[in-house]
Amino acid sequence: MTTKLETLPAPDKNTAGAGKPTNYRKPAKRRESRGTLAFSRAARTRALIKHGILILAGGLMIYPLLWMVVSSLRANELIFREPGLWLNSLEMGNYTDGWSALTHPFGHYMLNSAIVVIGSILGNLISCSMAAYAFARLQFTGKKLFFGIMLLTIMLPFHVVIVPQYILFSQIGWVNTFWPLIVPKLLATDAFFVFLMVQFIRGIPKDLDEAARIDGAGHPRIFLRVILPLMVPALATTTIFTFIWTWNDFFGALIYLTDPDMFTVPVALRAFVDSQSATSWGSLFAMSIVSLLPVFLVFLFGQRFLIKGIATTGIK
Amino acid sequence: MSAISELSTLKRRNGPMTAAEKKANGRDNKAAYIFLLPWLAGLVAITVGPMLMSLYLSFTDYNLLQPPEWVGLDNFIRMFADARLHNSLGVTFTYVFVGVPLQLGVALLIALVLDKGLRGLPFYRSVFYLPSLLGGSVAVAILWKQIFGTTGLVNQALAMFGIQGPGWISDPSTALGSIVLLHVWTFGAPMIIFLAGLRQIPVMYYEAAKVDGASTLQQFWRITLPMLSPIIFFNLVLQIIGSFQSFTQAFIVSGGNGGPSDSTMFFTLYLYQKGFGQFDMGYASAMAWFLLVIIGVFTAINFIAAKYWVFYDD
Question: Can you tell me the distance from the alpha carbon of A265 to that of A106, in angstroms, rounded to the nearest whole number?
Fold first, then answer.
């Protein structure tokens, strides 16, 4: 059975990230008006002006980030004197100071964050894909109602549930553990991803399920052997977004993690800001850079999935 | 299809299944509920249960130590008289209704510039997108605190022109503005949605318009904007809902107290202080429900207003 499936075409690349394929026209078609005629002088000037504007705007956007990187490699007193990006010497002192400025070495907090992130990713992947399979492929009583509720919960403000959630988790003794941050993901409460996966599964030809069913496969088997392997792009998008959102999550960690042993990176940084004397901006910047680095790396390598994920779930 | 349009079409497609559909699918209640089990458990234990619980708590006085005590509408009456709460509403409204249009405006503008088959699109797109990934982090909030500080980057730059800038985040009249700016800075995500939307507009519309001699501006008003309106609407709804819940940036920039003189005291920040600073859980729950109602009302207004300006092609 598996060999037969492998020969079937995978869903069109355009559907990656769960959108409907655009059947209006090929994306390239709109561009044809450039290029066919030789570039007129006016068009060229216009393009140049555009590039100028974009480079200026982009530079302005990115400048603070670049400046933070450079400043983290400068002597402390220069941070409040030197707006430029020029480095005279490379000072790693901020990094070594910052790494050990809190109760634990900064790596400890990164490890905590990593545990929460991995738990959340696994939770989201498993629970959301299961729910998505049911919504996209199965007929059941109350489907429309549940689907509607699921969509509504995407927009539900977190604050409406946080107080009772806190009470619940504190009563079972989970404050200062990672469970309150991970368990909700195991229960598919990030409905956004359920929706993203539903959209993606809808794009997978139903013939594949049918073929497997004729071969005698039940739903668990169809889900595991047919759908999951085909929805890898949606799973990748989910993984990346979960990574970034969980890594950056401040509110949840602020509420549930009050013991410095359990701090994740955002709350550790916050403790650093609160404790720092006026002279340690350099090391504060250094640790901020360290905390942004994983997100930046994910951005570099997972950009394709990020952009597709955003673009296709956003389109009507 | 976005979640929003899906929701609004849900009713329409709610008709009974056709006989053919029934025959083809049958019902798999057992399998379906097994697949849905984690989600259903989450719905009950993490979402709906706590929602109802917080509704109940909003009518009580509860500090986590003693059992909740029923006080009727007391919390809501207190809210009515709470000047700090009114101020926090004002701060939040300013943030949402200045920040969101500005952010979406910039996003649309850059998307339009990027759309016209420009070289280096992926590069520009990445540059503009990156801040929206990092903008929610504590690290960037820390950076902001420095940049807009009295001797921060902005004032260092101004000093080169001989201008003595104020301490942007220590001055109550500019502190909120610097946080709004941080929100605008994260325009990358809506920009990408706009870019994708622009690609969906059939090229023949523009060709026809050109034949009729329409100017670029006319094309923008008559084709681009109407065709893009569902996506602008989508962004507007989501950004408004999201911005009402903003917390991290104001918390970090103000050092957790919403200062100076409550000028960055977001509603959510005040809610946090009440609930998790003073453990006034009943009052915090009442505030949370009030926030839900506010967001619900503005979302409803958005949907009603959409009838007059959002154009659906199909």
Answer: 8
